[in-house]
C-alpha cells in the first residue's frame, strides 16, 4: 500500500476532488490518441466511462487506502476480457489514461515542484502495482479458460471416438448376423419344403437325406456366426473400462502376475511357446487385479496369434519391477515377427486388425490401452519393428 505524506495527500485530495472531469477528459483523450486500435472504433463515451471507473477506483485507493473498488474493477475488466481476444497492454492503457490525466492537471498546478515530483512518483508506483496485479489476475483467468476449453475438447474427442466406435460395432456385427440370418432362413425354407412333401405323402428317402445334410450345414453356419456375434458383443462390453473389473485390491503384485501367467499357460503351451517371468524384489500394490489379468491375457493371445507366425516356437518375457515414485513397471516382450510402421501407428485403434475374417476383432489392444490409461491411471509404450519382436511397457501407480 502507498503511504502519502500529509502535504501530498492534501495536494492529491484537492486535485482529485476538484478536477475530476478534467482528469477524466485528459485521460480519455490520451487513451484514444495513444491506442491505434481504439481510434475510430470505440465511441468516446465508452472509453470515457471506463476511465471514470478507473478514476473512482484509484482515488479511493490513493486517498482512503481502500483497495476494494480497485480490486473489483480489475476483477471486472479481466473477467470480461478473458473471454475475448484482448491484450494485457490494452487493459493497462486505462490506468495509464488516469495517470496521464492526473499528470497533465499537475503540470498546470502551481504547487511546490518537489510535491509534484512526489505525486508523479506515487502514480508510478501505483502503475507498477497495477500492472503486476492485473497480469496475475488476467493470466489466472486465461489459464482457467484454457483448462476448461481443454476439457471440453477432450470430451468432444471422446464423443467423436464413441460415435466412430458405435459405427464400427454396427459394421462388425453386421457380417456374422447377416450370415446367421441367411442360414436360418435357408433352414426355414428347407423345413417348409420338407413339411409339404411330408403332408402330401411324397417324402422320399433321398430328399430327407438331402434335407438332413443341408439342415445341419445351415444350423452350423447360424451357430458359428451367432457365437461370433456374441463374442464381439462381449468384447465391446469390455471397451467400457469401468465394467466388471472389480474394485482395486491390495496384493503381492509379483505373486499375482505369476498366478495369472500360470492360468494362461494353456494359451501358449500348445504351440510349444515359452514364457519367462522376471520378478524383482516382492512388493505389495493396490491395483485393479482383474484389469492386469485381462491385459496379460490379451498380450499373450496377440503374441500367439500375430507374433509367432512360423513353425518355430516363440519366446515371451514378462518383467515386473517397482520404479521410483511408487510406480510399477510391467514389460511384455515377444521375439516374434514384430510390427510394420502402419501396424505400430494403429495398434491401439479400435477395429484395427490384420486378421479380419480370421477371428480378429481389432479390439484387444484398444481395450488394453483403455484399461491402462483410464482405469489404472498409467501409461503404455510400444516398441516394435518388423522381424525384431514387440515390447510393450506399462507404467502405473503402485496405489490406485
Ligand atoms: N505381439 C504382436 N506382434 C505383432 N503384431 C501384433 C502384436 N500384437 C498386436 N499386433 C498387431 O496389432 C493388431 C491389433 O491387435 P488387437 O487390437 O489385439 O486386435 P486383434 O488381435 O483382434 O487383431 C493385430 O491385428 C496385429 O496386426
Ligand atoms: Mg488381439
Distance between the termini: 48 Å
Low-confidence segments: none
Shape descriptor reads elongated
Quickly name the level 1 CATH class of the largest domain. Answer: Alpha Beta
Structural class: alpha+beta
Provide mean pLDDT, rounded.
Answer: 87
String of helices and strands: HHHHHHHEHEEHEEHHEE
Lateral strand order in the biggest sheet: 2-4-5-7-6
As a percent range, the share of strand residues is: 5-15%
What is the CATH T-level topology of the largest domain?
Heat Shock Protein 90
Query: What would CATH call the homologous superfamily of the largest domain?
Result: Histidine kinase-like ATPase, C-terminal domain
Ligands present? adenosine-5'-diphosphate, magnesium ion
Total beta-strand segments: 7
Radius of gyration: 38 Å
Give me the number of helical elements: 11
Measured as a percent range, the helix fraction is 55-70%
Task: Note down, in words, how this protein is organized.
The protein has helices at residues 6-18, 20-34, 44-64, 68-82, 88-107, 113-199, 205-239, 253-269, 289-307, 341-346, 364-375, and strands spanning 249-252, 274-279, 284-287, 315-323, 327-334, 379-384, 390-397. By secondary structure, it is α+β, with helices and mostly antiparallel strands. The strands form two sheets. The protein has a five-stranded mixed sheet, with helices on one face. It has a two-stranded antiparallel sheet with strand order 1-3. The model has no long low-confidence stretch (mean pLDDT 87). The chain has three domains: 6-151, Globin-like (Orthogonal Bundle), CATH 1.10.490; 172-233; 249-397, Heat Shock Protein 90 (2-Layer Sandwich), CATH 3.30.565.10. The longest helix has 87 residues, at 113-199. It binds adenosine-5'-diphosphate (ADP) and magnesium ion. Residues 302-303, 306-307, 334, 336-337, 339, 343, 347, 352-355, 360-366, 390 line the site of adenosine-5'-diphosphate. Residues 298, 301-302, 364 line the site of magnesium ion (MG).
